[in-house]
Amino acid sequence: MTCWKSVSHNSSESASILTSIISLNSEIFSEITRRRNDYLREMFALLQRRDRAELVLTVDSQDDPALEAFMDRFSISKACGPSFTLRLAAHSALKVRGAAV
Q: How far apart, in whole angstroms, are the C-alpha atoms of residue 28 and residue 95?
C-alpha cells in the first residue's frame, strides 16, 4: 500500500503500473483458461469412454462437433460475456491498490 501511495502523484507512472497489473492478470487468466480447457478435453474423453464402454478412446481431432459442443457448454467467455477478462483485471487492480471492492 505504501508503494502505491509513493507513485500516486505521477499519473503516467501509476497508469503504467496499473497497465502492468492488468496485463499480468490477463496472462494468468489466459494460462488458467488454457489448462482448464485441457482438463475439459480429458474429461470429455473420459465421459465418451464411459458412455461407449470402450477401453481406449482418444480425441485427436479438434474439429469433433461433440467436443466443440462440450467445450462451448463450459466456456467461461460465453457464460460471462466478452468483457469478463477486463472486469477481472480491473477487480484485481483495485484489490492491489487497496480499494474496497
A: 16
The owner of cell 474496497 is 100
| pTM, entire model | 0.51
Cell output for 84:
469478463
Tell me the C-alpha distance between 24 and 30, whole Å.
10
pLDDT in tens, 34-77: 999 999 999 999 988 887 765 455 555 677 888 888 888 888 77
C-beta separation of 48 from 65 below 8 A: no
**Cα angle vertex 22, ends 24, 84, to 5°?**
110
Structural domains counted in the chain: 1
Domain hosting residue 78, numbered range: 2-97
